[in-house]
Design goal:
about 70 residues, mainly beta, three-stranded antiparallel sheet, about 10% helix, about 35% strand
């Protein structure tokens, strides 16, 4: 299973940085695990420690240096 992420960082001014991005661009679903696994170690019928169970999500942020 491969997930593709994209992020962008830009310096807008001398003290202002902007971050934009998207994780899991193609919104791939994780593989399903069996009932026993999901009851013992899994969450939502998958392995959240290994696979992205949230689906596609976007993020943005900025930093101001003082």
């Amino acid at each position: 299973m491969s997930y593709f992420d994209l992020s962008f960082t830009a310096r807008l001014q001398q003290r202002l940085n902007l971050r934009l991005g998207v994780n899991n661009i193609f919104d791939k679903d994780p593989p399903l695990a069996g009932d026993f696994v999901s009851q013992v170690t899994g969450n939502g019928n998958t392995y959240p420690q290994v696979y992205d169970s949230l689906g596609r999500y976007f993020f943005a942020g900025f930093t101001v240096d003082f």
